[in-house]
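Thread: Newbie trying to understand structure tokens

Hi all, I'm a second-year student working on a class project, and my supervisor (Dr. K.) asked me to get a predicted structure for one chain before our next meeting. I've only ever worked with sequences, so writing a 3D structure as a token string is new to me. If someone could post the tokens and maybe explain what I'm looking at, I'd be very grateful. Here's the chain:
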Amino acid sequence: MLTAGFTGCQKLNLNPENWLNPASLRSQSPDEDETSLTEEFETEVKVETPFIGEYTQITGKNLIALQGVGLITGLNGTGGNPPPSVHREALLREMRRRNVKNPNHILRSPSTALVIVKAYLPPLIRKGETFDVEVYLPGNSEATSLEGGWLMESYLAEQAMIQGRGLLKGHILAKAQGPILIPPMSEEDRKKGTAGILRRGRILSGGISVAEDRDLALYLRNDFKSIRNAQRIANRIGGRFHHFDKYGIEEPLAEAKTDKKVVLKLKPRYKHNDSRYLQVVRNIAFRETDVAQRVRMQKLTEEIMIPEKAERASIQLEAIGKKSIPILKAALKSPLLEVRFHAAVALAYLDDGSGLKALAEAAREEPAFRVYALAAMSAIDEPEAHMYLRDLMSMTSAETRYGAFRALWTLDKNDPFIRGEDMNGQFLLHVLETELETVVDHDPDAKEGNPKNGGPMIHITHRKHPEVVLFGSKQEFRVPIAVRAGEVLITGAPGTEEITVSKYKVGEPDQRKRVPKNIAVVIRTAVEMGASYPDIAQMILQAHQQGNVDGQVEIDALPEGGRMYYRPTEEDALMALKSGTMKSNKPKRKKGARIGNQNVVPNIFHSGGPQEKTSKKSKYDLDEDENGKASLADYRKSKSSDDDDDDKFIKQTTFQSLFRYFKK
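---
Reply by user tm_fold:
Sure, no problem. This is what the structure looks like when written as tokens:
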């Protein structure tokens, strides 16, 4: 019996000598031996996590060039009969198709002109959404100016000039119409006869897409394409990003169409910053176990506190999802503005408003962070976001004020503070009572002796959104004044408290009205008499050039991407702490990084057209002897903190991280 029992124990591997052998505790599958288990464990720990961006390329971000031919009407004798050309023949065919009588007689009129219409269909545009359109006179045109003109409805399509076949058209993707906005000109330029400027113009939001919705797509590498891999990528993206249909059923935002193509839909939270969305998608792990993810998160916890690695770490944490929120919140306590900024941006797109204070600080203090901070604030629909953006509209910097306005308008168009008035369906008039706002505590762009808030300002746009924004509801015109808003005349004698707005046109009854000098009241009255947005914009610029406006006048004062941020250096901080200034005769060592890309900015601050390939130097890119106030403040905070030590970063190996995780 003893012999049989001992033999049975050996067969069942119950020998006490083998109890402490780790190999005896695992499965006896023939496909798995001790060597393979060790290799698999080491692979999960030591090899870097593969991301979706390593195996795919993104398409659908390109602009589609559109072109057409159109007819401008309403010109004040500056039109002309277009000479024979392919464009004239195309316009005549279109006019006959629409049953227009005597088309040649219309083209000969001095109040009409043939124009070439160009536009770029933006990426991710939905059917029915609008975009800007450009018009210009052909080189051999007899017309001299497009000022005051209106583009009749015209169709835009892809076109190509094929040798031997002439101009070929593709499918019609958009249509366009609206008033022509001429670039601003001074009276001196008009007297010099700058005909080139008057021969071209822009129609803000004049194009309407009639094509199908444009979506993004991921294409797998040729050496990686397969149905299985495409489905795995779609599942990984769908697990991170999804939405609910009208029946409340969860739907993933990625779908595998072929062995190479995955269609990607945009998450609504990223609608106004699709570039950030694509960055996050590319940083979703393609293959990762729960243990490996926890190890990577521990590593990212350390990396996000390092300025040079904070941006990449924040994007990867954002790609992981809600699990990363505690890590990002901890990074908000860093004494370095750069670290706080990147953590706050990631939190904003994770629908967490904990970083709003850091975003407002970044937008106010550091121009390099401004455009991305404001875009992130526009993604958080919380009362605190509204309050911070209102405060930023009282700053001195024009781009900070208008950038904050654009962010709040994107967040909530019906916010009582910025709600616009519809001006005959052509543009919006926003009158902001910034003079009633609380004076900001700190304004880095303010100068000594000037008021702490920004004061009165008028902002007009020449791209995307036709609007006039008055920062200060009590702004008035100075008298004497004599300016025009198209056919509307605005005059005021010296010492008077009222301004006369009048319009005299042949065949129409005379219009004349006396109104207060308030700029908003004058604009409303001029629009009632038929003034268009281009007329109002030209009136404001003319009044500014003549000295009839007290405040500053800005055009498209948008924050930019791709600016340099100069990190604090020890030499600068020590000198500043001793002398109170950052100026020195000795050359300083620069330690800077370019934040983002000038050609890739959030949609709410994008011009809508193709960008320059070479980035120009911004006025905020400092010289060798200037490092910026925000950097100095960061360094002072970092030296006064007892909890953080930014001069010492311990880079742990993967094994140490894993050991600490299991020990915990």
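A couple of things are worth pointing out once you decode it. The chain has 21 helices and 23 strands. Residues 64-209 form one domain. Feel free to ask follow-ups in this thread.
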